[in-house]
Amino acid sequence: MKTILIFCAVILVAATAVFAWKFSHREDHFGKPFTGLPAAAIPDIVAKPDVFLGRQVSIQGKLKRQCPSTGCWFFLTDPADPKAQELKVEMGDTTPRLPSRMGRLAHLEGQFIKYGEGYEFIGVAVTFTEEHKP
Description:
Layout: H1 2-24, E1 28-31, H2 42-47, H3 49-52, E2 56-66, E3 73-77, E4 87-90, E5 105-115, E6 118-129
């Protein structure tokens, strides 16, 4: 009987640990599934926008600002240089409402377009993850 109780306790502790880890390291995906588009770096896009104009690419960055009402747009920076210039991402057509994910890392796929006097990235898929610090 004692062995069964110890075994049940071990299972309960292990299940609790797995649940806690999953909850703290969750990924949130919104939009279409990823298709494996070629990667582009935010500093490269910002420095040479005409090279990336109209191209469908995959980008990664850290959320610096986000629409306060619906979260449908946000600004990303290069995770290696948080003081670098920001890139605006618009997700409103794909996902009109996104939860606040400030400070998280984002992996996106979409297209870089001209918008008014500037540029923006139109996202069709995004996954938010927690920032892993070494």
